[in-house]
C-alpha cells in the first residue's frame, strides 16, 4: 500500500453520526457543514454514488459504495466502506477496493460464501465474496464494446481487507457496451449462485456453482417495463406473502425515471432458478421521487429484506451545492409484498431502527388540519424530524417546511388527482440545474380512504411513505438557511386522528 493510500485510509476511519450520539469531539466543520445530512449516511468527504456489496455478517452491516476519494465529482471509482451494528449509526472504514489495471471498480454485490463454494476460504474462515464490474476506461476510450467485465474480490477477515481474485475477470463481456452491476444470490431451487446482470436494455441471468465459472441462463425485459434509459443495478429476491413465494426483480433505470432522470422500477413474478416470468407487464416504481437511485438490497439478512438507495439523480448529482462531500444514502427500508386489487405490489417502509434516532415526541389527537401551525406547539425545528400521521379519510393536504428567507418545501396530497407531491420550486438554491426546481408527483396506490403517512426530514432531504409504504417519494433540497418551521394545511378540512412529531434533543 502506498504511503498516500495508507495516510488516507487512516484519516477516514472516524465515526459518522455515532460520534454525535456519544458526544465525542468532532472537528468543527465536519458534520456541521451546510446541508450535511444528520441521520443519513454520507461519505466523510468527496464523491459517492451507488450503494454496493451490502451484506450482513456476524452482527455487522457492511455498506460499500461508489466513491471517488480525490474529488467531489465522478472519477476513478473505488469501493468506499462503512459498517454499522444497527443500520443507522455508521462508522467509516478504509477504502475496500481500489481501481487497478483492469479499470475502475463499478457497482456490484457481496455474498457470504458459507459453504466455501469459491474455495477462497482458508483455515475454516468463511469468505465474503464481492462480485463487481471492472470498467476499463482505456477500453472505452479505444471505442471497444467489451470494456465492462465482472470480477471477484474476497475477504477472510469479515470485510476488513479485500484481495482481488488473480484470474479476474470471471465473466467476460460478449460485446455489450453496458454490461454491469452484478447482483449475486444463492438460489435454493437451482442449488447455484444466480447473477442478475444489467445488460443495456434487459437483464441477463447467469448461474455458477463456485462464483468463478458462469453460465448464461436466460434474459428478461426487452420491451417490458420502462425503457427511457439504460438498465442498471438490478436485484432479484423472493418475499413471502401469506405463505406464497413472490419473486421481485428490481431494475434501476437512467434516464427514464417517473419524475425524470434516474429511478427504480420493479417487477413481481416467478423465478424458477432459470428464468424470471413477470405476473404482468405493468411498469411499477419502488420510489416515485426524483432522488432515490441505484437502490438494491442487503444479502444474508434472513427473513428481513433491507433496501438502501443513493439519494440523488444523475441529472444533477455532480452539481448539487454541497462542498466537501457529494452524495447521501436513503434511510434503510424494509421491503414487503402487499396485495392491492388482486395485484402483488412492493412496499417499503423505514426500518424500525430509525425510531431510535429520535428521543422527543409530541403527540396530537384529532387535529383539524385546516391550518395547523405545528411550530407553535413543538418549537422550532432544530434538526431531523420524523412525522407520522393517520386518519380515516385522506383529503387535500400540504405540509410546508420553511425558513425566515421565505424559502419553502411543500409535501402533500392532491385529492382531485389522487396523487402525492413534493414541490421544491421555492425550496432555496434550485438554480444549479434547470430541472431541479420542480414539483414532483406520485400516484396514491392504497385503495382505501384511511391513510398512514410517514415523513422523514433531514437537513436537506425528505422521504415520504404512505399506505404502508406503497407510495414512496424521496427528494433532496438546498435551502439557504435550514428550515425551522412546519405548518400543515388542508383546504378540505382533513382530520388527522393521530399526529406524532419526533425530534432529537
Ligand atoms: C449507476 C451506475 C452503475 C455503475 C456505477 C458507476 O448509478 O451508473 O451502472 O456501475 O453507477 O459509478
Automatic annotation (TrEMBL):
Keywords: Glycosidase, Hydrolase, Signal. The keyword Electron transport does not apply. GO terms for cellular component: cytoplasm. It comes from Niastella vici. Transmembrane segments: none annotated. Belongs to the glycosyl hydrolase 32 family. Residues 1-21 form the signal peptide. Residues 40-346 form the Glycosyl hydrolase family 32 N-terminal domain. The keyword Signal applies. Pfam families: Glyco_hydro_32C (PF08244), Glyco_hydro_32N (PF00251). This is Glycosyl hydrolase family 32. InterPro entries: ConA-like_dom_sf, Glyco_hydro_32, Glyco_hydro_32_AS, Glyco_hydro_32_C, Glyco_hydro_32_N, Glyco_hydro_beta-prop_sf. Gene3D superfamilies: Exo-inulinase, domain 1, Glycosyl hydrolase domain, family 43. One of its GO terms (molecular function) is sucrose alpha-glucosidase activity. The lineage of its organism: Bacteria, Pseudomonadati, Bacteroidota, Chitinophagia, Chitinophagales. One of its GO terms (biological process) is sucrose catabolic process. Residues 381-502 form the Glycosyl hydrolase family 32 C-terminal domain.
